Amino acid sequence: MTTLSIVIPAKNEAENIIALVEAIDRALQVHAPIEIIVVDDGSTDNSVAVLSARRETMPHLRIVRHNRSGGQSAAVHSGVLAATAPIILTLDGDGQNPPEELPKLAAPLLADPTGRIGLVAGQRIGRQDTWSKKLASRFANRLRGWILQDGTRDTGCGLKGFRRDAFLALPFFNHMHRYLPALFKRDGWEVAHVDVTHRPRGAGRSNYSNLQRALVGIVDLAGVAWLLRRRKTARPLPQDL
Questions:
Q1: Which of 47, 79, 100, 118 could bridge across to 39 with cysteines, CB 3.0–4.6 Å?
Q2: Given this model, what pLDDT does residue 25 score?
Q3: Bridge-based pairing state of the strands 160-163 and 117-124
Q4: Burial class for 235, CB neighbours closer than 10 Å (0-12, 13-18, 19+)
Q5: pTM of the predicted protein model
Q6: CA-CA distance, 102 to 160, in Å (whole number)?
Q7: What domains sit in the chain, N to C, each tagged with a CATH number?
């Protein structure tokens, strides 16, 4: 049985993706058997070709392809649907999330004696981004934390671990990946946090701008706040008569 499924949302990351999947393989050897699922979100470069060539000698590498770009949340959702392991680990496809941090995410879930930890969220330290991106992220995280009270300082970090069944029970919407701590708490799950390191982007460029994030973030934040207020505090248990 597959122990862990690693889901990587990626778009136009042909220059980064092979080194990334090979580093993931090395970092998680102790947890084998694993599967690595790269979700190609409508790339226009040769990402699929280089992944297909690598899969010939890495049978646990799987490729899921979107026929057009659906965004990061859609890519993560597709990868989780395709996964066969009960525990999912995610990281971004640009190589800025070090694969060596993945065991930190898996450990609390695999060792949880209560079965109540639903999500382990990575929080970046020493972030290797432009000052404008770091400033925008800091403002967004403080605003989100104040409104949602999710207890997380960095929800934009791609390094996360969670239970597959719990994730699939969450309401699905665009950009939901940025609100996982609040959504898991909404469903009664415990959320653990681990500090993780961060790297500069090796090649290519980001698919998002600060302006894009800000515009969609306002609407998303209002929607998630509404979802939290509308949650049920108790669920009836059906009984056959």
A1: 79
A2: 97
A3: antiparallel
A4: exposed
A5: 0.84
A6: 8
A7: 4-229 (3.90.550.10)
Give the separation between CA 241 and CA 237, rounded to whole angstroms: 13
pLDDT of residue 167: 98
Are 201 and 10 spatial neighbours (Cβ–Cβ below 8 Å)? no
Q: What is the dihedral of CA 127, 129, 133, 135, to 10 degrees?
A: 40
Each residue's pLDDT tens digit, 68-108: 999 999 999 999 999 999 999 999 999 999 999 999 999 99
Q: What share of the chain is helix, strand, coil (3-state, %, to 5)?
A: 40, 20, 40
- What are 159's two structure tokens? 């390094």
CB 21 within 8 A of CB 63: no
Strand order in the sheet with 190-196: 61-66, 34-41, 4-10, 87-90, 160-163, 117-124, 190-196
Report the alpha-carbon distance of residue 17 to residue 162 in Å, rounded.
22
Tokens of residue 36, six digits:
């690595």
* Sign of the CA dihedral with 83 first, then 191, 31, and 96 last: positive
In the predicted model, residues of the chain with pLDDT beneath 70 are 128-139, 141, 144-145, 202-218, 232-237, 239, 241
Backbone angles phi, psi at 14, to 5 degrees: -60, -30
pLDDT at residue 210 in the model: 47
Cβ neighbours, 10 Å, residue 236:
6
Q: How far apart are the first and last CA of the chain?
A: 37
Burial of 150 (0-12, 13-18, 19+ CB in 10 A): buried
